[in-house]
Design a protein that fits this description.
heterodimer, A: mainly alpha, 39 helices, about 75% helix, about 0% strand, B: mainly beta, 1 helix, transport (chain A)
């Protein structure tokens, strides 16, 4: 509704402007000065409206000021034709209405300056003074904006065509500053115009006009004569005076930002005191963090862009000034939200990282300041603030790409303490990610301690937060995954230090509780095993230190893995025991290896009850045992016997069958001299076949002739036989295989077997080996007489 | 036919010319019928000289009882129209009674005539200077011809010319102080000044400066006052804040002003006022009127 009216009024005003501009142009074309003035004044009279919103008014202003350009040309032509410009200057002031009069005055004024008949100073001074007459904020702003625009290229600055000694450029400066001051006053005053209920809308509109005010600062920034001295002694104090005194949030915020963006970096650096000194004087509601952060960002970029600038930073001690200023601001603005103050420190930190990346003490100081600020507020519940802290803590990581450096920052963990649990974990993850990404080696035990202190959010549960109900399982896995990966990055070439590291890591990891341990212990174990293997490969420990012998470490691992079985992760524990056993084997520590096996067997017996798990576990046991070389015959006999016993006690017959034939391997090792007990191998295979027979009978009984399961068992057995045959074991004879093959044939004839392709490929393999010319394999296969092959 | 018409026509054509008529400055003056005519311009103490030419129509003879030329300074009140009060009256006899047969030229001269007042054309009063030629005839009526001329007198810049400075206001509402640089301005002068706002509690639309002319005629109980606004000049747009000062710069040249006339021959006065008007958003007007004295400076003989 209102917008419609706005459009209507704008349309009416626009058409009036057009019409008068047309008549004005016609008068100009016929050199009729009087009419040209009359119609231009009428045209400008449209700008006296109070009905338009700032946005629409701007459109109207643009139209009218466009038209004024041809009037300016006309004035210039008139003076070229001999018309006295001083008279023209008077003539335009005969206009009865103030606004058209002043627009015309500005227009002719700009021509006057160009003509150099008078000093630019006088005209500029007159114009800027006369413009005071328009006190209506909107109209005044646009009028002064027009003034700034038409005089912009005529300011007598150094280097401009209008001669510039020091005196005159100060005049130009004075002019722009004054125009700026007046415009700002008008702009600030705008908020009080009209009813209070539309304040919000008005502030929005006002914000749209800010660039009109800011334009003056741009002009100042581009004035040639403004060097550091002038800026420091005149420009900045004057602007700041206005900014502080206007006591308006919107203006202060915008103008501070303007100052920062418009003037060169080295000016800021040299006037840091003054600029920062103004900050605590601003209104409490001013978003000071945006201002300061803008400044620091700029300075950071400056430092980054030019190397020569760096000494200047040191010279003016930019860091401590900024740090001090932020402290002041935080102090002055009591209800500054935590997020804001953290943001401030964040930008200070970024600044420090850019400019003084070599000064870790500065970085730590920033962190310290932040801590003391946070200590007033306590733990952060504010989500925004927490996010800022996360960014704050990530900044040094991104900069140094080296967690080891971060570990030297004593205040770093103290900042983390103010985060809630989730955010704390997030930071920890970020830290770990940094390590992973940058392949950072954490090489000393002390560093490890410090690091785990930092990431303790991931390592253990916090008090009062043991209730993990709401924790997303996937996230948890993910986090622990990171921890697990981290463990592998803790590495030192020196075995002694490495073992220290492992001891420390273990200490930390063990605090993790039942949910974490199954995920975090394995990497620790493997890391330790790696070390053990390395020690075995290297020389004897020259120091003879107790802590770093393989025995000691394995001892430690025993205890560690034991914890797992306590938290009902028995299968995992069993696997780890077996791994340890292998390592012990490699280190030729028979008793230790035996110990591990014992533990594994105990676990198998006591903890693993699920039949499938049993099958898997048993296979692992068999596989591991098969490779153990360290045991003497007696020990081995015990362990093997036990394993075979377990095999026979499995619940399902097929599983029994398979486990038993696997056990056959335990009596036959390629390398081990003392381990070629053919009798036992055949014994196992026979037993296995018996079980298969039983399976076959059972299935025949229960399901008629349709069973296939046991046929594949036979085929598997057949393959085992072939394996041992190839290995050249004498007890495995052609007859045995032949009979088995017959059996399979018999069974397959009875029923279509699902294992058909298995059988066929096995047979094809046998046939192939038979045909082989060399390698002696054909001889072995020749023993097998089979009618099948016909 | 010709003869008949001739009986009603004046028997001769009388014209009056000034000696330096070609070179003398002419200024326009508005006649009653709205037309503007150009008349020669004089000032006090000048010698007014010229010729009167009497040209009888062809074949006619003009009998007369004497020819004279008078220089009159007259004031005419509009409520008493047609009745002139002569404050100056000079006479020159040009001819003794006799007959005129052919064109005859009479030179005349009024040396250093005292003409203390300016020609003035107001709302209710007019002051004019005129040359009146009378050809006196007995029974057929005298022949009279007029020639108006303008008089403007110049004043030196006043030795004392104080500024006008004043503080006015409405309690707890509006408090201003204004200053005009002089109290006496010449007709092409420019009024400079400043308006200081000491207290502003009303919302203003604009502020104007008006030039008002107050013409009072008659005396005593019959005094008639007429006020005209000759200029309305906007000084300010919008509401200022406390401490703001608004510049005043008003050029007087474009307006049709006369010098201030005080008690001209006890008949009339013309005074000028500056009226500062503030208009608030409810269109209420707050104003303060100050008299200024206008005078004509010698230098500005060049225009109106």
């Amino acid at each position: 509704m209102i917008a419609d009216d706005d459009e209507k009024w704008l349309a009416a005003a626009t058409s009036a402007v057009k019409q008068n501009a047309f008549y004005m142009q016609r008068a100009i074309d016929s050199n009729n000065l009087k009419d040209a003035l009359k119609f231009s004044a009428q045209m400008l009279g449209e700008l006296r409206t109070s009905k338009l919103s700032p946005h629409k008014y701007y459109e109207l202003y643009i139209r009218a000021s466009d038209e004024l350009r041809s009037l300016e040309m006309f004035f210039r032509d008139e003076t070229a034709r001999g018309c006295s410009i001083a008279e023209l200057y008077e003539l335009v002031q005969h206009a009865g209405n103030i606004l058209p009069r002043l627009y015309l005055l500005c227009t002719i004024g700009s021509v006057y300056i160009k003509s150099k008949d008078v000093t630019a100073k006088d005209i500029l001074k007159d114009l800027v003074e006369m413009c005071r007459a328009v006190q209506h904020p909107l109209r005044g702003l646009f009028l002064r904006s027009y003034l700034a625009q038409v005089t912009r290229d005529k300011l007598p600055s150094i280097g401009s065509e209008l001669e510039g000694d020091a005196e005159t450029h100060m005049d130009a400066l004075e002019f722009v500053l004054q125009n700026f001051t007046e415009m700002n006053k008008l702009w600030v005053r705008m908020q009080h115009q009209g009813p209070a209920r539309e304040k919000e809308k008005r502030e929005k509109e006002r914000n749209e006009l800010r660039d009109l005010v800011g334009k003056n600062l741009h002009i100042l920034g581009q004035l040639e004569g403004v060097d550091l001295v002038v800026y420091r002694d005149t420009v900045l104090p004057r602007i700041l005076e206005q900014v502080v005194n206007c006591k308006d949030e919107l203006a202060q915020c915008y103008l501070m930002d303007c100052i920062i963006q418009v003037f060169p970096d080295d000016f800021h650096l040299q006037t840091l005191d003054v600029l920062l000194g103004a900050c605590p004087q601003l209104q409490p509601s001013v978003d000071i963090k945006t201002v300061l952060s803008g400044l620091m960002e700029r300075l950071s970029n400056y430092a980054a862009s030019s190397v020569e600038a760096l000494p200047n930073f040191l010279q003016v001690d930019a860091f401590s000034k900024l740090n001090h200023a932020i402290g002041k601001v935080v102090e002055a603005q009591v209800d500054l939200p935590a997020s804001a103050s953290v943001t401030l420190y964040l930008f200070l930190l970024k600044f420090t990282l850019h400019v003084h990346s070599d000064r870790l003490d500065y970085v730590d100081q920033v962190l310290g300041s932040c801590v003391s600020q946070l200590s007033a507020t306590g733990k952060l519940c504010d989500d925004k603030a927490s996010k800022q802290i996360v960014a704050f803590l990530s900044a040094p990581l991104e900069k140094y790409n080296d967690v080891v450096t971060i570990l030297k920052l004593t205040n770093y963990p103290r900042v983390m303490e103010y985060l809630d649990h989730d955010k704390n974990k997030a930071v920890a993850v970020i830290i770990i990610q940094s390590i992973l990404k940058n392949d950072t080696r954490i090489a000393t035990a002390d560093e490890v301690d410090a690091l785990f202190e930092l990431i303790k959010g991931l390592i253990k549960d916090f008090d009062g937060l043991t209730d993990n109900d709401e924790i997303d399982e996937e996230d948890f896995q993910e986090e622990q995954n990171f921890v697990a990966r981290l463990v592998h990055f803790l590495y030192n070439d020196d075995p002694e230090e490495m073992s220290k590291i492992i001891f420390r890591v273990r200490k930390h990891i063990l605090t993790g509780g039942p949910k974490r341990l199954p995920l975090t212990i394995p990497p620790l174990v493997f890391s330790a095993l790696k070390l053990i293997r390395r020690m075995r490969g290297g020389d004897e420990n020259p120091f003879g230190d107790d802590t770093s012998t393989p025995q000691k470490i394995l001892q430690l691992l025993t205890e560690t893995v034991e914890v797992l079985s306590d938290v009902s992760a028995s299968e995992l524990a069993l696997r780890l025991y077996l791994q340890c056993a292998q390592a012990a084997n490699d280190c030729e520590l028979e008793t230790v290896a035996y110990e591990f096996f014992t533990k594994a067997y105990l676990l198998y017996e006591e903890e693993i009850s699920d039949s499938k798990a049993q099958v898997t576990a048993l296979r692992l046991i068999i596989g591991t045992l098969q490779r153990m070389r360290v045991f003497n015959a007696e020990n081995r006999e015990i362990l093997t016997h036990k394993a075979t016993g377990y095999s026979a006690k499995l619940l399902k017959k097929p599983d029994q069958c398979r486990a038993v034939y696997e056990c056959a391997h335990l009596y036959w090792a390629e390398e081990g001299e003392n381990l070629k007990d053919g009798e036992r191998v055949v014994h196992c295979l026979k037993r296995s076949q018996k079980i298969a027979d039983a399976v076959q009978q059972m299935s025949n009984k229960s399901r008629g002739a349709s069973s296939t399961g046991s046929v594949s068992l036979y085929v598997e057995l057949l393959n085992k036989y072939l394996y041992f045959l190839e290995k050249g074991y004498p007890q495995v004879t052609g007859e045995t295989i032949q009979s088995l093959a017959e059996l399979i044939r018999g069974e397959t004839k009875k029923a279509e077997s699902g294992a058909g392709s298995f059988i066929t490929s096995t047979l094809r393999y046998m046939e192939f080996q038979r045909q082989q010319e060399d390698g002696g394999m054909n001889e072995k296969y020749q023993k097998i007489k089979m009618e099948w092959f016909e | 036919m010709n003869y008949l018409l001739g009986a009603f026509k004046p028997a001769c054509n009388v014209s009056i010319t000034f000696t330096d008529g070609k070179n003398r400055k002419q200024v326009p003056i508005k006649k009653d019928n709205g037309q503007t005519v150009m008349n020669p311009l004089f000032q006090s103490q000048e010698t007014i000289a010229g010729k009167v030419i009497i040209e009888p129509y062809q074949g006619k003879k003009v009998e007369h009882n004497g020819v004279k030329v008078e220089l009159l300074g007259q004031i005419e009140m509009y409520f008493d129209r047609g009745n002139f009060y002569d404050f100056t009256s000079l006479v020159r006899e040009l001819d003794v009674p006799g007959d005129i047969y052919e064109r005859k030229t009479y030179p005349f001269e009024f040396p250093t005539v005292e003409m203390p007042y300016d020609t003035y054309n107001g709302v209710n009063v007019r002051l004019r200077y005129v040359l009146k030629v009378t050809v006196t005839r007995g029974y057929s009526g005298s022949i009279v011809e007029y020639q108006e001329f303008m008089v403007r007198n110049y004043a030196p810049p006043p030795p004392i010319n104080n500024s006008i400075k004043m503080e006015v206001g409405i309690e707890d509402c509006l408090h201003i102080e204004f200053e005009y640089n002089k109290s006496k301005y010449h007709l092409k002068d420019v009024i400079l000044g400043k308006i200081y706002f000491l207290l502003v509690r009303i919302k203003m639309k604009n502020m104007d400066l008006e030039i008002r002319r107050r013409e009072s005629t008659g005396a005593g109980a019959n005094t008639h006052v007429e006020t005209e606004t000759l200029a309305k000049f906007e000084l300010m747009d919008g509401t200022p804040v406390r401490g703001e000062s608004i510049p005043v710069r008003l050029f007087l040249a474009p307006y049709d002003l006369t010098p201030t006339h005080r008690n001209i021959n006890n008949k009339f006065s013309v005074k000028y006022y500056l009226n500062l008007v503030l208009v608030d958003e409810e269109d209420r007007r707050y104003f303060k009127q100050q008299e200024i004295t206008l005078y004509r400076l010698k230098a500005d003989t060049s225009s109106v």
